[in-house]
Design a protein that fits this description.
NHTrfase_class1_PyrdxlP-BS; 45% helix; alpha/beta; binds pyridoxal-5'-phosphate; 13 strands; two-stranded parallel sheet
Length: 401
């Protein structure tokens, strides 16, 4: 008998499990709209040309070695990442009161930030939106924080429940941490307007609530890197403190390279340097130091004016294709006269559409049409193409009629 005989089988991850089911389906019609990864019109994964070029340069540079990075990662990468998210002219950067550490993509940045807060911040409660990316509650609970939710999405309007959000943050205890999606909220695709962001900022600052931004889609939502960082820069501009987790998975297509950054904007350079010393103590026993390849690709691109420019063009092309898929799906449902209001498909932004389809309708579409998505009715627009839109529209039409 195994000493592990008592181990019970764990459940499949609700998001990654969709791909497991998809892979088992032998139908030629099958369509995977579950996982949040970009696909071309041909349905293929995409490596950006500028990324290929950066990798070539790295390979050809024989002076490069495979030594360990420092605990906090690649120095250039950290500096450039802070500039990218906070803005090149950010006073917080000029004042040296931002500490940035390279982490294992967005997830790792959230985890390190969460663990730092659990050890050193006076409030251990983090408020996350309802709903949110399914990994958030797990990451923060394991980091040692206590997780509560605030109202975010209104299923009736398929838009923001702004009143509920203000009420819930208004009644949160002073000092509580609040997780905010910087843009392209996952899974709903619903973001506050700039005016609403300003109201959220005022409320949070008046109650000393600590903003923890999750930025997984900078540039991927609107096609513009600065526009997609607006919410974060609003909070940094008032001189207050905040935390930002950045991912390069989607916007540089570096998913499997696991490259991201955690920035903590502090009140002074002195505090920032002490915070960094404690971040190192979180990271060292967790994974010692981060991997070198992905961060070198990012630094190579961000450092070079031409490569940066090339990146923004490729990034905008990805964002535009997704926006175009929204329009095509909306038009296809209109043509079919599918009952209901589907305007949220073109109103929501980012990688996902929160369709409003319920779990029975999703199960129906999987069984009858071989279309795979999470059971909450979230579809990845990035997994769709002109060729597959009619099939999806037929399936949605059949599911709701
Ligand atoms: N945060 C949100 C809201 C996400 O949607 C994702 C990825 O889907 C992540 C963080 C983290 O992704 P990664 O760890 O691949 O950077």
């Amino acid at each position: 008998n195994s000493v592990f005989e008592h181990v019970v089988r764990g459940p499949e991850d609700p998001i990654l499990g969709v791909t497991v089911a998809y892979n088992k389906d032998s139908s030629p019609l099958k369509l995977n709209l579950g996982v949040g990864a970009y696909r071309t019109e041909e349905g293929k994964p995409l490596v950006l040309n500028v990324v290929r070029r950066a990798e070539q340069m790295l390979v050809n540079d024989s002076s490069r070695v495979k030594e360990y990075l420092p605990i906090v990662g690649l120095a250039d990468f950290n500096k450039l990442s802070a500039k990218l998210i906070l803005g090149a002219d950010s006073p917080a950067i000029q004042d040296n009161r931002v500490t940035t550490v390279q982490c294992l993509s967005g997830t790792g940045s959230l985890r390190v930030g969460g663990e730092f807060l659990a050890r050193h911040y006076h409030q251990r409660t983090i408020y996350i939106p309802l709903p949110t990316w399914g990994n958030h509650p797990k990451v923060f609970t394991l980091a040692g924080l206590s997780v509560k939710t605030y109202r975010y999405y209104d299923p009736v309007t398929r838009g923001l429940n702004f009143q509920g959000l203000l009420e819930d943050l208004g009644s949160a205890p002073s000092g509580a941490i609040v997780l905010l999606h910087a843009c392209a909220h996952n899974p709903t695709g619903v973001d506050p307007t700039p005016q609403q962001w300003e109201q959220i900022r005022q409320l949070m600052r008046s109650k000393a609530l600590l903003p923890f931004f999750d930025s997984a889609y900078q540039g991927f939502a609107s096609g513009n890197l600065d526009a997609d960082a607006h919410s974060i820069r609003l909070f940094v501009a008032d001189g207050g403190e905040c935390i930002v987790a950045q991912s390069y998975a989607k916007n540089m297509g570096l998913y499997g390279e696991r490259v991201g950054a955690l920035s903590i904007v502090c009140k002074s350079a002195d505090v920032a340097s002490r915070v960094e010393s404690q971040l190192k103590l979180v990271i060292r026993p967790m994974y010692s130091n981060p991997p070198i390849h992905g961060a070198s690709i990012v630094a190579t691109i961000l450092k070079d004016k031409n490569m940066f420019q090339e990146w923004t063009i490729e990034l905008k092309a990805m964002a535009d294709r997704i926006i175009n898929m929204r329009q095509q799906l909306f038009d296809a449902l209109s043509t079919r006269g599918t009952p209901g209001d589907w305007s949220h498909i073109i109103k929501q932004i980012g990688m996902f559409t929160f369709t409003g389809l319920n779990s029975e309708q999703v199960a129906f579409m999987t069984k009858e049409y071989h279309i795979y998505m999470t059971s909450d009715g979230r579809i990845s627009m990035a997994g769709l193409s002109s060729r597959t839109v009619p099939h999806l529209a037929d399936a949605i039409h059949a599911a709701v009629t």
